[in-house]
Amino acid sequence: MTDAAPHVLVPQPLTPQAFAPYGTVLAFPGAAGRSINGGNAERFDLVGDLQLGAEGGWPMLALFRAQARRFPHEVTEMERHALGSQSFVPLGARRFVIVVAPAGNAPEAEALAAFATDGLQGVTLAPGTWHHALLAVDAGDFVVVERAAANVDCDTCALAAPVVVDWQG
After folding, report:
1. pLDDT of residue 3
2. Is CB count within 10 Å lower at the N or C end of the chain?
3. What are the C-alpha distances in Å from 14 to residues 31, 61, 62, 85, 164?
4. Residue 17 gets which letter from DSSP?
5. What domains, with CATH codes, occur in the chain?
């Protein structure tokens, strides 16, 4: 008996519509913002509530210095933060691939989706969204905004079989 072929995910371009079940795409909205600072800047509000205060949590701003990953990449584990969102924003033009699955029970391979950013986009994952750790295509720094608390809010699950993310960028 031979092993079944691995489930392969080919990341699709990150768009607000495709990513909506998992969270929000952070990018220039394309429309005029609100004039601030005496007309020297425009403000664009991207996410109205990051949902970071559940059960005594507070906002945490962190810097992740990521190494570039090689593709194809084998995904064997997913994680989620049930009590708060988590945002990843590249500092500079840095592409990354985000592997996600809907909130709920631990995901099966068929429930996973993958998206590739254009290097200028970030994401805010909705509370409970399953995701793989940061898969940087371009090495560098990422700002991460997440919920902090006395008790760590991070559930992990092993996938029944590895999923291969095949990105040709």
Report:
1. 63
2. N
3. 19, 23, 23, 18, 18
4. H
5. 7-165 (2.60.120.480)
